[in-house]
């Protein structure tokens, strides 16, 4: 239960950051004049794909099962 709550809260944070990034992209698109759009398009596309990759990695790490802790072997026979 606790792990799923942590995953939910972290995922919500990732989505909130994504909304902020999307708002930034919208404002860039609004202020770009028509002559600048072809030059800005690759940069904006790269920015969006970078955000998507980070979001996917963060969510995957949060939803992955916990790693098994390495335990020292007992030296006794």
Mean residue pLDDT: 65
Task: Indicate the overall shape.
Answer: elongated
Stretches where pLDDT falls below 50 for ≥5 residues?
none
Compute the separation of the termini in Å: 39 Å
SS summary, helix count: 2
Strand element count: 0
Q: Biggest β-sheet, characterized?
A: none
What percentage of the residues does DSSP assign to strands (E)?
Answer: under 5%
As a whole number of angstroms, the C-alpha radius of gyration is 21 Å
How many domains, in number, for the residues? 1
The percent range for helix content is over 70%
| Helix/sheet category | mainly alpha
Secondary-structure element order, N to C: HH
How would you describe this structure to a colleague?
By secondary structure, the protein is mainly α. It has one domain. Helix content is 74%, strand content 0%. It is built from 2 helices and no strands. The relative contact order is 0.12.
Helix and strand arrangement:
Blueprint (H helix, E strand, L loop, with lengths): L1 H30 L5 H27 L14
Keywords, separated by commas or semicolons:
77 residues, mainly alpha, 0% strand
Short description:
With 77 residues, the protein is mainly α.
């Amino acid at each position: 239960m606790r792990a799923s709550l942590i995953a939910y809260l972290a995922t919500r944070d990732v989505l909130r950051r994504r909304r902020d990034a999307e708002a930034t992209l919208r404002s860039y698109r609004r202020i770009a004049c028509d002559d600048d759009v072809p030059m800005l398009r690759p940069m904006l596309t790269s920015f969006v794909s970078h955000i998507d990759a980070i979001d996917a990695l963060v969510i995957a790490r949060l939803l992955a099962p916990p790693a098994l802790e390495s335990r020292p072997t007992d030296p006794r026979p």
